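Researcher: I've been going back and forth with a colleague about how HNH nuclease domain-containing protein might be arranged in three dimensions. Neither of us has a model we trust, so I'd like an independent prediction. The organism is Cytospora mali, in case that matters for your notes. Sequence below.
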Amino acid sequence: MSLSKPQRAMSWNVEFFNFSLRVGGVCQRPPPDLPGLPGLLSVADIAHELNVCFVCDPPADNAASWAPALLLPSPSAKNLIILDQRNNDPFPMPTADVHSYQYVFHLDCAHPEDPHKINDTCIYRKPGMIKRRKDQRYIDIGSRSSDPNVADFPTRTSSRTRTSSLKRDSTHSSRSPSPSRTVASIPDELCFIPPDERREMTRIINQYATNVFQSCPRCVITGEGNYYGIQGPGLEAAHIVPQSQWNKYPIDEGIPESGNIELLKIAWRSTWDAQRNGIMLLSIVHRCFDARLIAIHPKTKLVRVFVNYDPLNKYHGKKVNLPRSVPVEVWQHHWDMCCLENTVGTSLPFPGSLTDIDIPELPKPKVQKLDHGDPTKQGSSFKATDSKATDTQATDIQATDIQASSVSIYHGSHPPSPPLSKRASVEREPWPFGKEILNDPDIVQQVIGEDKVLEEINIEDGRGRPRKRKQPGCTATEEYAEDRDSADGAKKQRLD
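Model: Here is an independent structure prediction for HNH nuclease domain-containing protein. You can compare it with whatever you and your colleague have in mind.
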């Protein structure tokens, strides 16, 4: 169980507003054992975080001269904070329970450190100027990409999936099942992994935890879990980039384009590379790490706890030793995903639901570059990308997934047969569809699509049974459990 966005917002003591609309917030606090120190986050951290999460429209005239800033509506000195990503000064700690800042743009003036008011001529804001950024790297916690181009790559878990067409030796059938593909029925044109390479990928997955422990023998955050050189109870191997979201692994400061199979293979292997994407964590820290409640700063190597949660608070601000083999871009990826999960409020709609914003097409190089540069130079035409829209929110993708799921669930139990139009007329033949029975062939054909067919059912002894097929085909495996709870075996079914 993870925390919802409203539950995460309960920990905010710094809030960001556009007029009366609360668009986000953070929890700024010092390490618990050093209460007299400034907060953990710097001005540069807040500037980067807001730039990752939001797109803001500067004034149309002379936009480059306006800098994003935060204005605290109080007469105190230095109530204006210019969001400079080079400023490593500590971000001010709230003196009261909560500091509520207005997100504004500031035109360089003669006295930027003097108190400012919201109606000063050097201050600009307008309703609706802050929009939620779309980030093509983002996928919901525990979810996977719906891109059909990545469906053929194996992961630890899947639902109603099939393995390679080669049968496994029966002597291994009672052991932990091999990893399998991520969707139920994969068209031949989307099958990219040959059997030999799939077997190698299976070995990589099975050896991952052991390899992580060899390169990282204790929890990187607590320093605990090593028992006389062996892996102690509760010490677990953890992916930094989630294994179910392997296609978001950073490559050359970007992510692989979905149509580039070679780069996708590199991303998959990097995700399962114990030295490039693996650390050991105690079980409770592991769960919170996967829930995006805790992260490690990619530069300072300080632990940040995003919410006020007592099992984690003692690690907030702790400096840790990280494996040198993990690229800094991987730590940055996890940090940014935690920012998107914890900093954005619920008031702003997902960018995919906005119809009045001109979002240009992304360029299509081999790697889609991720630019989190100065937002004042981007304007409203910046390509906002949040894969809640691209991976989990897009309506057309959901519709495709629903239809594919309906067809593939049926095909997992019944092989295809000749089209309905070519079969002998049989009055009201029953057609199993999930837990339902369909009797109208026209409805059946409409459900599965024009290019798909169902296996005809014979009525024998008062029961409908699938007609046996003589032609041998590939085998299939049933769903099996996550990394910690692998199943005893996988049921095989006949396809084709």
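Researcher: What would you highlight for our discussion?
Model: I'd start with this: The two ends are 40 Å apart (CA to CA). After that, consider the following. The chain has two domains: 1-137+340-407, 148-339.
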